[in-house]
């Protein structure tokens, strides 16, 4: 007998029974009903979000900024009225609460009373974050709550960008003013640097002159020492002269022989006294001039100290102003994360901090300069005291010299009288004794004045040395001041140029509010939700269609007598195969040409759909053939496990551990991936790989069904049970 005889006879019997034709036709449309209604129902739910009611409650009371009213909450509500993303319902607080409790609203957005005041606090000393209260009604519908929550986050992001744009525009406008101020400050710093350079040059000249003064003072001290030594010798000689005069009175007889020599010596003493007097007067005048010069130097030092004190005060104010600018920029950075990421803003912040550092160094240099000026003033005061002592000593020396001159003149006259009138020698000797006593006193005063002159010269040399040391420190301070003012000028100029580069144009505002742009690549983007869920629903539809077909058509028995073995297997298998092909063709035609499902390749979509339908049909045939009713129960369990583990809705990584473990063993896992390839991605190589894996399942269960019929040689005749 022909191996297809059983199949041919069953077809003839099928054609003679209209009810069987209707039943088979209905079963053939089962996957179409599953897939069609499920996919169509989830085709594009996001296109109807404007019908989703969401309550909006605006409690914002507004705020005032610089005398201008600000109502950010009302502006946000107006933006929502223009936004058609959801069915916004602008209600009061009670209506929103009642609507959530009665499930009339899927979510509620509440704008608090202090929303505008929180926004306005950004420029205050106590900034606060503005908040919008969102409440989803997930009890009513979880998916709707998730959708409205994501949309609210997008609206919050848009509102934040608008506020950031307004703040950025205000900040950039302030930067233009700041740039002008920094430019003027840079020009002032350049002028200050020029003044510091001139000051340093003047200090160098003063220091050099002070060095010369110290050298001259040392020489004066040395000369005063020599003069003091001579005065000691003179005083000793005068004392000896006084003693000799006393002895002369006792030995007048002996003096007559040396009369001529004594007169000659007295004349030489008188002749030398004008020279001594002129030298002492020149010394006294030099001391007076030195004292006057030291007083003028002291007045100049006091004026220099006053000028440096005023300059230090101005530098302190400049340092405070620049430091305040740097702190303000740093505070702006801390309060705005987007500014912290901006390279230009970071460059400006670094420049302002450098300017603050330069200003502090300027103030420090001027402080050191002021200390040096004060040391210089003290040294000049000591030097003035020494000069005054020197002048006093010169006056005393001059008085002593005058007395010495008077005594010498008297001595000369007395000697001449002695020589002329030897008979009057005794009175002349008395006068000589008196003159010698005066000469002795004058020499003592001369010695004392020269000693004071030597001490004043030492103090003058010490004061000049300290004054030179102070001038050196002053020069160092002036050098540091010049370097600091130049660095300050450079930093201020850089800060001015950097701040001037920030323009409050649309491009800059765009970069401030949107520092990072996201460029979407739509190569793997699915436009409609139905395209993404179709692989999952198609797999469910074909598995359910195969399972239902086993309840309508018996996979074991036949109405043909003596149907058994290979012939019965061929008849049953051909019937199941033809049903799977019919289901596949109907589903593909409906989805592609009626629902408008766009696939990457229509022929390959037909081919792959027929592979999936055939494999699922062979699996169901094998289970029911071997186990009958328990087999259908196991197929139902298999379908449940596949719904969870096939990653048709959630990604595999989000599934429970047991679902991940059985995922590779579930045929629906491969059917879903293959449908994704042919519908969305166009990865045909992966589609064929999934088809090959499914074919392995189909071949295994096809062989299992064959084994069953080969083991069961004798068939049983039984009319199929048709539904009433």
Automatic annotation (TrEMBL):
Q: Which UniProt keywords apply?
A: Membrane, Transmembrane, Transmembrane helix
User: Where does the record say this protein resides?
Assistant: Membrane
User: What sequence ranges are listed for the domain ABC-2 type transporter transmembrane?
Assistant: 22-165, 513-707
State a single Pfam family of this protein.
ABC2_membrane_3
Membrane topology label: Multi-pass membrane protein
Using the UniProt record, give the first listed, main subcellular location.
membrane
**Top-rank taxon:** Bacteria
Transmembrane parts of this sequence? 20-39, 533-554, 574-597, 604-627, 633-655, 691-711
Name of this protein: ABC-2 type transporter transmembrane domain-containing protein
């Amino acid at each position: 007998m022909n191996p297809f005889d059983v199949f041919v006879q069953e077809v003839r019997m099928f054609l003679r029974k209209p009810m069987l034709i209707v039943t088979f036709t209905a079963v053939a449309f089962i996957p179409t009903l599953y897939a069609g209604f499920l996919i169509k129902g989830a085709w594009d739910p996001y296109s109807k979000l404007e019908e989703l009611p969401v309550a909006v409650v605006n409690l914002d009371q507004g705020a005032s900024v610089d005398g201008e009213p600000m109502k950010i909450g009302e502006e946000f509500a107006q933006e929502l009225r223009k936004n058609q993303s959801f069915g916004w319902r602008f209600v009061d607080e009670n209506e929103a609460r009642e609507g959530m409790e009665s499930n009339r609203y899927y979510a509620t957005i509440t704008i608090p009373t202090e929303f505008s005041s929180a926004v306005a606090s950004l420029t205050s000393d106590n900034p606060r974050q503005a908040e919008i209260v969102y409440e989803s009604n997930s009890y009513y519908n979880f998916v709707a709550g998730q959708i409205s929550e994501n949309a609210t986050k997008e609206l919050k992001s848009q509102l934040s960008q608008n506020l950031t744009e307004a703040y950025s525009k205000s900040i950039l406008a302030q930067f233009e003013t700041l740039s002008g101020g920094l430019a003027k400050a840079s020009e002032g710093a350049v002028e200050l640097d020029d003044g510091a350079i001139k000051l340093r040059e003047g200090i160098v000249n003063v220091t050099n002159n002070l060095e010369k003064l110290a050298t001259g003072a040392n020489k004066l001290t040395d000369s005063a020492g020599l003069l003091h030594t001579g005065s000691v010798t003179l005083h000793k000689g005068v004392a000896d002269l006084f003693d000799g005069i006393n002895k002369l009175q006792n030995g007048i007889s002996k003096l007559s022989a040396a009369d001529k020599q004594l007169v000659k010596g007295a004349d030489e003493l008188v002749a030398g006294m004008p020279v001594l007097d002129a030298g002492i007067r020149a010394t006294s005048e030099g001391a007076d001039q030195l004292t006057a010069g030291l007083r003028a130097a002291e007045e100049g030092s006091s004026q220099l100290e006053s000028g440096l004190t005023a300059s230090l005060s101005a530098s302190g104010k400049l340092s405070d102003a620049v430091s305040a600018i740097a702190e303000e920029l740093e505070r702006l950075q801390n309060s705005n994360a987007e500014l912290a990421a901006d390279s230009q803003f970071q460059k400006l912040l670094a420049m302002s901090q450098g300017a603050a550092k330069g200003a502090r160094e300027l103030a420090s240099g001027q402080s050191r300069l002021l200390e040096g000026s004060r040391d210089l003033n003290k040294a000049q005061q000591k030097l003035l005291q020494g000069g005054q002592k020197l002048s006093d000593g010169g006056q005393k020396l001059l008085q002593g010299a005058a007395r010495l001159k008077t005594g010498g003149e008297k001595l000369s006259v007395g000697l001449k009288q002695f020589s002329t009138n030897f008979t009057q020698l005794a009175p002349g000797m008395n006068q000589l004794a008196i003159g010698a006593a005066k000469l002795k006193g004058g020499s003592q005063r001369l010695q004392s004045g020269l000693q004071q002159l030597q001490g004043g010269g030492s103090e003058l040399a010490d004061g000049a040395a300290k004054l030179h040391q102070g001038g050196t420190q002053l020069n160092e301070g002036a050098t540091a001041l010049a370097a600091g003012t130049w660095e300050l000028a450079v930093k201020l100029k850089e800060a001015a140029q950097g701040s001037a580069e920030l323009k409050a144009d649309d491009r800059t505002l765009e970069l401030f509010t949107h520092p990072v742009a996201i460029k979407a690549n739509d190569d793997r983007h699915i436009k409609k939700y139905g395209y993404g869920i179709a692989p999952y629903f198609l797999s469910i539809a074909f598995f359910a269609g195969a399972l239902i077909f086993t309840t309508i058509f018996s996979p074991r028995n036949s109405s043909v007598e003596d149907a058994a073995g290979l012939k019965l297997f061929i008849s049953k298998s051909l019937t199941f195969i033809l049903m799977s092909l019919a289901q596949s063709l109907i589903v593909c035609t409906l989805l592609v040409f009626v629902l408008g499902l766009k696939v990457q390749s229509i022929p390959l979509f037909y081919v792959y759909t027929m592979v999936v339908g055939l494999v699922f049909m062979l699996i169901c045939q094998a289970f029911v053939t071997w186990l009958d009713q328990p087999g259908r129960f196991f197929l139902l369990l298999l379908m449940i496990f596949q719904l969870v583990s096939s990653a048709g809705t959630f990604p595999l990584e989000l599934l429970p551990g047991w679902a991940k473990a059985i995922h590779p063993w579930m045929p629906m896992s491969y059917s879903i991936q293959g449908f994704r390839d042919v519908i969305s991605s166009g990865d045909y190589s992966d589609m064929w790989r999934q088809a090959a894996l499914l074919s392995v399942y189909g071949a295994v269960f096809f062989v299992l069904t064959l084994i069953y019929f080969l083991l069961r040689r004798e068939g049983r005749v039984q009319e199929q049970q048709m539904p009433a």
